[in-house]
Amino acid sequence: MRTLIKHALAATEPRDFIQLGGWVRTRRDSKDFSFLELNDGSCFASIQVVADAGIPGYEQIADFTTGSSAVVEGSLVASPAAGQKWEVKARNIRLIGTADATYPLQKKGHTLEFLRTIAHLRPRSNLFGAVFRMRSKLALAVHEFFQSRDFVYVQTPIITASDCEGAGEMFRVTTLKGNIDEQPTTDFFGKKAYLTVSGQLEGETFACALSNIYTFGPTFRAENSNTARHAAEFWMIEPEMAFCDLQGDMDLAEEFIKSLAKYALEHCAEDLGFFAKFVDKGLPERLKFVVERPFVRVPYTEAVDILTKSGKKFEFSVVYGQNLQSEHERFLTEEHFKSPTTVFNYPRDIKPFYMRVNDDGKTVTAMDVLVPGIGEVIGGAQREERPDVLVEQMKHHNLNPADYWWYADLRKYGTVPHAGFGLGFERLIMFLTAVSNIRDVIPFARTPGNAEF
RNA sequence: UCCAGAGUAGCUCAAUGGUAGAGCACGCGGCUGUUAACCGUGUGGUUGUAGGUUCGAGUCCUACCUCUGGAGCCA
Fold it and tell me: Where does A122-440 sit in CATH, by number?
């Protein structure tokens, strides 16, 4: 029965028999014995195996190369040398799969760019093992956060005919051959269909029935974006709450980010330690800061004031009524407030139709949560629940209300104030690991011109 | 898509317009309860692609490809 290395290393006492399986990270030969570093990905650390010459399997010792796979049986004993608490005194070693000299992962630091070209092997590296173990833990933390607050998990469709306006270009889904625009009525769904850019509109229908819901699934944007924080396929978390206003929305967003940072600190210490050592020394401090300190909240108008009066020279000037540029957002979070910052009440014209119009008639209840180093991780709003205003908003944005008949029905029958937001899961992982490129926190990144794996 | 930068050995990088090198990896030898082991030694190249300038191009020019950083779109 195989034991995971994670459990072997957590042992409280020696064990007479243990079986381990994993991949050889490195081998150090002595005259009469060899050290094998075995890693199975169950935890960050590898385990040291001591194999004496003469034990079964040792005749193949030269083939236990970096990258090869092996099963080892022996006893778990306290290590006499510094560097590890436990090691395995092998009784036999079995080579399962060889890895010849062409194995691309070497016993040294590789650039992230190179590792992206071997995305099928990079999970075997220290950094990517840590990233994907942590990603898994955080996915669980997302569900725990919402489930413990009685939110219902809703799986909104991946294929959709509705364009969540403002969310970007969509991938067309079709079974038509030739000219796919000629007769959409003969297409598989009888109309044009796309990969979803957001589950929000569908999510709202469930919030207006089950009160508090969340989605957590893949999302697609066909934008030709070439940046470290955009991908064509990413995972988004979208809570939606009935009987909730913008304040409640901002409260939940802040609580959510704090909760995940706390979860990472409590459950991912070993992997976080690696990020702190090799990626960003300030990471643990930053996470503690996020957990302990309230986020800054500032209305858009005030944010513009701060930027205007800062005396800072920006490449793009600050203009009221226009979107904040990346450099403006960075100034607010990284220099002015030095804290995660929620900006709210944006001008109506630069935000989508479904956001609730404020009493001033000029702004809507939009809110963006900005974090240092990443920028926007959350975008959300209180939704327009007044039927007449919603229709007016659609027209204002040049949309045909008939296309959104079922969405408008939510306001026609038992409308309620409700609010929600979208959080990019990868961006959150970037923030919590300090890994600065989105391509390195998703198993197989889809970006323009890149879908090899 | 726009702006900037970079493509040289398996990897990370050197090389004034004049004989393409080093470290690591890998092979061989040695040494050692070792820790990305160490010491010696050897193998390793169509300098991203296609043109051009020049007696001579890794180096200069043009186009294209790829990647990186920044910007826009946003999560």
Answer: 3.30.930.10
Burial readout A71-102 (b: 16 or more C-beta within 10 A, e: otherwise): bbbbebeebeeeeeebbbbbbebebeeebeee
Residue with minimal CA–C1' distance to B23 is A108
Cite the residue boundaries of each domain of chain A with CATH code 2.40.50.140. Answer: 5-97
Q: How far is the CA of A387 from the C1' of B4 (A)?
A: 49
Query: What share of residues in chain A are helix, strand, coil (percent, to 5)?
Result: 35, 25, 40
Cα–Cα distances in Å, from A111 out to A38, A101, A255, A426?
A: 23, 19, 35, 20
Q: Which residue has its C-alpha nearest to nucleotide B66's C1'?
A: A449
- Three-state secondary structure readout of A171-216: CEECCCCCCCCCCHHHCCCCCCEEECCCCHHHHHHHHHHHCEEEEE
List the one residue out of A244, A40, A256 whose CA is nearest residue A129.
A40
Q: Which residue is nearest to nucleotide B38 (CA to C1')?
A: A28
Distance A114 CA to B58 C1' (A): 22
Which tokens is A5 given?
């290395």
Tell whether the model's pLDDT for residue A166 goes beyond 60: no
Architecture field, domain A5-97:
Beta Barrel (2.40)
- Provide the ipTM: 0.92
Nucleotides on strand B lying under 7 Å from protein C-beta: 1-2, 10-13, 24-28, 31-37, 66-75
pLDDT band at residue A398, thresholds of 50, 70 and 90? confident
Q: Residue A167 pLDDT > 70, yes or no?
A: no
pLDDT per residue as tens digits for the range A51-90? 999 899 999 999 999 999 999 999 999 999 888 999 999 9
Q: Which two tokens stand for residue A73?
A: 């049986």
Q: Nearest nt to A80, CA vs C1'?
A: B33
Q: How many Å apart are A452 CA and B48 C1'?
A: 19
> In this structure, are residues A404 and A394 in contact, taking their beta carbons and an 8 Å threshold?
yes
Helices A246-267 and A126-147, packing angle to 10 deg? 130
pLDDT value of residue A65: 93
Task: Please give the mean pLDDT across all residues of chain A.
Answer: 94
Q: Which nucleotide is closest to the Cα of A327 by its C1'? A: B71
All CATH 3.30.930.10 domain ranges in chain A, comma separated: 122-440
Residue A132 tokens, joined: 């994907």
Nucleotide nearest to A48 (CA to C1'): B35
Q: How many CB atoms lie under 10 A from the CB of residue A222?
A: 15
